[in-house]
Amino acid sequence: MNRSLLYRGLAILALVVVAVYSAWPLDEKIRLGLDLRGGMHLVLQVKTEDAVRAELDQDQDRLLRFAEKEEIAGLSARADAGEAGADGAGPVRSFVVAGATAEQADALADLARENLRTSDGDPAWEMTRRGDELVFTMEDVHARNLERQAVSKALDTIRNRVDSFGVAEPVIQPISGTDRILVQLPGVDDPERVRDLIKETAFLEFRLNDYPREGSSGVPREQILAHYGGRVPDHVEILPVRPEEDDTGRATDAAPLYIAVERRSVITGGDLKGAGPDVGQFNEPVVRFNLTPQGGRDFAAATGANVGRGLAILLDRRVVSSPRINSKIGDTGIIEGGFTPQRVADLALILKSGALPAGITYLEERTVGPSLGRDSIRQGLRAGLLGVALVALTMLVVYRLSGINALVALVLDMVLLFGGLAAFNATLTLPGIAGIVLTIGMAVDANVLVFERIKEELRAGRTVRSAIDAGFGKALSSILDANITTLIAALFLFQFGSGPIKGFAVTLSIGILVSVFTAVIVSRWIFDLQLARRERVERLSI
Amino acid sequence: MELLRDLNIDFMKYRKFWIVVSLVLLAVGIFSVFVHGKLNVGIDFAGGTQLTLKFKQPPDLGELRRVIADAGIAEAQIQRFGEPGDHEIIVKTPLVEGSEEGSRAPVVAALDARYNPGAAGLDLNRAGAADVAAVLLGGVPDVRSEADLARQADALAVAEAILDARRDAGLFTDWDQLAAAPGVGAEALAQLRDASRLGEFALLGVENVGSQIGEELRLKGILAVILSLLGMLIYIWVRFELRFGIGALMASLHDVVVCLGFYALAGFEFNLTTIAAFLTLVGYSVNDTVVIFDRVRENMRKTRRMPLIEVLNLSLNQTLSRTFLTSGTTLLAVGALLVFGGDVLRGFAFVMTVGVVVGTYSSIYIASPFTLLWEQLFGSEARARRASGRQKAA
């Protein structure tokens, strides 16, 4: 056997060994996509607007407090309506201060510049005059930072939450270029609980009551509307009170109640340092919380100025409880709301693992039970095996003994394909299985191109040896061109596709590369092996 | 075995006839998709919620429709799924205005009310491991000691085993199925029978796509197909010539539209997997066409004076056996997928099956004629004729 033949043979063997080693045993080495394994796929959107708005509210309050310290009084402030209107349809990025004289305006500008800064130490606000009002607009850089931080914090929080669930190989990542997060949890068996738990990493806020002004457990909506004469003022909104829960954690059937609260938050989840379950005065389960120093200061200021008023504690824009402020509260407090011990534990976990400074919406959710995936695998494999059998038969019938050549190439295709999937740690999805079956059908194409060429050359009168040479040589450009175009399609599929489609694109691409390799290199080697046996070959079974 | 040797079919002679046939197919395709509105768009693009349910008893579709409609959920689509003995159903509901979260909860609640009325205790066909473990422990565990922790871990392990059994079966129809799970002894079984029940249905899968994502997926899908076609055109332009690129492009477009028409008529759902199928189809169709053009290029080099139409005919004849063989094997493979590959992949297999047939046809009767047409309208001879025509006039 000549040397080139030997080396080529060894190289091919080496590849096969590597492939088999990577991919065996199949069910351990090949990573299955969610649609085959079962699990949850979620795309969440972090409502970064909430975080920015909360910061705006807080800075607004701080500015007025600093002003008071400098003996500047008689000021009022409100958020400036967003581009589309006061209902917040456009992003709110500025607040307006009224009632300041010209000198006071300068002083305020100084106060803002010195005290309201970004984390880099730059001023966070820019002041302009509008008539006799002062408009403070948030610097873009600051707003973007806040948005990024909100997403980052949400990411951490969700990771902590999911960790406590003990899911194997969770995927929790930001989606670059957006304020979205991708969560993939394979093998989750209680999607509803996971969903609720993640969703509950929602917005914690403390706001002052407007009506009923004292602490309250809520009143019917009609009563509130009647109090305001049918139209609620701009700085107030009506929010529902969370219904009580029974032992199993389900809400009771009582009529829904509401409280009218100020739109501004006094403090939010971002100011929380920690939380834990505790017992209250009457041994009822409560949640104890601690605030950050800055949060503590804001809280003290707000409660100190509003003793006797009700403070609404909102979770996800629902009133969890609304106790009366009895005295100035510093940086520690409790949340009580008729909770069960389980609920308190959950709430504390939510607050402790980081309450979010912004809310979350589910944009997309896909949960697949594993039995669906199992069926699909079974059926796909069935079709695949049948496909291989049929294609192999065809090749044998049409090309006789050379068909065995094609058959070997086909089998090698499958081995190398699975080896490639395992080696690249690619994910096999349901469309990916379709891709494998498709590859089986198309894999022989390269072989067919070569064989037909060889036949033509034989008919034209060439010797067997030179026909084989010419066949491979001339067919090569066809093979390359044809398969590159299919690769282009696979490339776009990969770019624009989501998870399962990406899996298909990868499987198809690997399949194409592998089939070109086997047709050009392996088939050639097998022919050469045949030719090497004798000096002159008269006929070729093709 | 010698297939199709020494043929000399004059393909191009009847090209006008076949172009008419194609136009008819195209018209049917466009009509059924756009005018007749028959494209069954899945939630991937239209947004909405899709639930896969499995029932103990064969469910009555009419009954289901009534139950869901009564719950105030409009325009729900309900269809059977999987093998007939599986009792599996898919419920699709459209996007609810203003809500990104979909209608999973109300639909499940409505079904609960109808099929599990007045039921108490944990529904083992829907519960998660933690709740099942709680039942086994006789309530939410109060962990105060090492022994308690151990009991909790044991209960959780048994719960996992039970859920594994449920995963295999999809749904528990009989208490015996639970007894078969490892770790479920007589005592545990008794506890479960006492405090829980086997509900009438299980939720095998939920998919919810909000309006934002739906729109984005739509855009991405369309973009992918358009860019892919352009990419092919440019590649072929570079490797061959513009006229061949145009021919291949026309063939691909033709394939996509005709297949889309058949797809719509067959009533399959149009979702992300369908886009993948169509992109693959484009790839395959161009693949096919390129092989023919490769031969054309070679023949053109060999016979410099032969008119294009003859070169095309010659090349088509020469590549005919390869065309049939490759189409044949691919057809066998995707045919196997179509018949045996299961419900989820059936749409994909359908596109590929129809696509292989139409793609082969279009490589012969669309790509080449259009290349010819382009040549006749814009080729060097045509330009020369026009130039001399202008000279004569001037």
Structure notes:
The complex is a heterodimer of chains A (542) and B (394). Chain A has 542 residues and is of the alpha+beta class. Chain A folds into three domains: 3-38 and 371-533, Multidrug efflux transporter AcrB transmembrane fold, CATH 1.20.1640; 48-140, 2-Layer Sandwich (Threonyl-tRNA Synthetase, Chain A, domain 2), CATH 3.30.980; 143-366, Gyrase A, domain 2 (2-Layer Sandwich), CATH 3.30.1360.200. Helix content of chain A is 52%, strand content 19%. Chain A has helices spanning 3-23, 26-29, 34-37, 48-69, 102-115, 140-163, 191-199, 221-227, 293-305, 341-352, 370-423, 430-459, 464-496, 499-533; strands spanning 31-32, 39-46, 76-79, 94-98, 125-130, 133-138, 171-175, 180-186, 204-211, 236-240, 258-262, 267-268, 272-279, 285-291, 311-315, 318-321, 332-335, 360-368, 427-428. In chain A, strands 9, 10, 11, 12, 15 and 16 form a six-stranded antiparallel β-sheet that branches. In chain A, strands 7-8-2-18 form a four-stranded antiparallel β-sheet. In chain A, β13 (272-279) and β14 form a beta hairpin. The radius of gyration of chain A is 35 Å and the shape is elongated. Chain A starts with a helix and ends in a 9-residue tail after the last helix. Chain B is of the alpha/beta class. Chain B folds into three domains: 11-42 and 210-385, Multidrug efflux transporter AcrB transmembrane domain (Multidrug efflux transporter AcrB transmembrane fold); 48-119 and 202-208, Alpha-Beta Plaits (2-Layer Sandwich); 123-198. Chain B starts with 14 loop residues before the first helix and ends with a helix. The interface between A and B is large, with 81 and 84 residues.
Query: What form of chain A results from the Cα inertia axes?
Result: elongated
Architecture of the largest domain in chain B, according to CATH? Answer: Up-down Bundle
Supply the helix-strand structural class of chain B. Answer: alpha/beta
Assembly classification: heterodimer
Task: Report how far the terminal alpha carbons of chain B are from each other.
Answer: 62 Å
Q: Mean pLDDT of chain A, rounded to whole units?
A: 81
- pLDDT < 50 stretches of chain B: none
**Which regions of chain A contain 5 or more consecutive residues with pLDDT less than 50?**
246-251
DSSP E strands of chain B, number: 8
Helices of chain A, by number, come to: 14
Largest interface, C-beta closer than 8 angstroms, per-chain residues: A-B, 81 and 84 residues
The top-level CATH class of the largest domain in chain B is Mainly Alpha
